[in-house]
Amino acid sequence: MGVSASGFVPVRIAVLTVSDTRTQETDTSGAYLAAAIAEAGHPLAGRSIVPDDLDTIRSTVAAWIQDPQVDVVITTGGTGLTGRDVTPEAVAPLFDKVIEGFAVVFHNVSFRSVGLSTIQSRACAGVARGTFIFCLPGSGGAVRDGWEQVIAPQLDARTRPCNLVEIMPRLEE
Amino acid sequence: MIRVHAEPFDAGGELAAFAARVEGAGAIASFLGLVRGESGGADVSVLELEHYPPLTERTVAAIGEDARDRFALIGFAIVHRTGALAPGEPIVFVAAAAAHRRAAFEAVDYMMDRLKTEAPFWKREHGANGSRWIEARDEDLRDRARWA
Q1: Does any CB of chain B come closer than 8 Å to the CB of residue A144?
Q2: Which helix (H) or strand (E) holds B104?
Q3: A44 CB contacts (<8 Å, ≥6 apart)?
Q4: Which residues in chain A touch residue B130, judged by CB atoms under 8 angstroms apart?
Q5: What string of pLDDT tens digits covers the 173 residues of chain A?
Q6: Nearest CA in chain A to B122
Q7: ipTM for the complex?
Q8: Among A43, A83, B125, B145, which is least packed by CB within 10 angstroms?
Q9: What are the counts of helices (DSSP H) followed by strands (DSSP E) for chain B?
């Protein structure tokens, strides 16, 4: 990881869109994340769209966890409560540690945007073999809230008093 | 011509200005989308649109340019509102100018299907029962798939 004069440290982020219906053209949440990641100064380490299928989601995220070129995985979609929503079930078993505070803070942020509707999301995050994984809802507004107000500042090494980037070297101690 | 902004627009004025701008067209078709006052059986009091300008402008411009290429348009116009809108307010205006009517009609339909599914607008509905994010419906995605 290179440290710039300002103290910013780019981290390599892969984006996974989970949806039965979205395509490359209509994946607006994935497109937003890719653009916002680049604007923040982080390299996009990968981008993919998979259907709401537990095995496919898990194997895609697992491959990124094992890939030394990927520091962070962000998924969008599949966090709701319907039968087709299985992203947390697919990803959580991969976690070595669950970042409970992420869900708490995300829901706080989301509550300010849409009130009680936020309870329909099961946004979650964890660490797996030194890789951070964040699971955001599919709706574009919720992705924007999650990126701008929670993930982006926590993936910025300049954020004080603490951020997730500064502890990356110690995740696999 | 594309514009994305929070200020209200006048659809009649937009159409007149567009017609004056395109030369040699034999047909102009236009569409005006209004904010609906009802959604999923609940009354909507405000529809709030936010967006990510670097991506929105690129996406909306590409939709217009693709329509121009695909339907041999002489010109196109896309005007999209952002900000807080009340039911009945104009939210989107699309127009296409072509040599003949079929291309103009189809180009407007095509641009709207792509705007609904590809333009990264974050739509938040506020009503008596609370707020929620609005996404493209399966129907919108099926409409978009007609042009694949």
Answers
A1: yes
A2: helix B101-118
A3: A12, A13, A14, A15, A34, A37, A38
A4: 114-117
A5: 566 767 999 999 999 999 999 999 999 999 999 999 999 999 999 999 999 999 999 999 999 999 999 999 999 999 999 999 999 999 999 999 999 999 999 999 999 999 999 999 999 999 999 999 999 999 999 999 999 999 999 999 999 999 999 999 999 98
A6: A141
A7: 0.88
A8: A83
A9: 4, 9
The whole-model pTM stands at: 0.92
Parallel/antiparallel/unpaired status of strands B42-51 and B121-127: antiparallel
Query: Which residues of chain B are within 8 Å of residue A35 when distances are taken between CB atoms?
Result: 52, 54-55
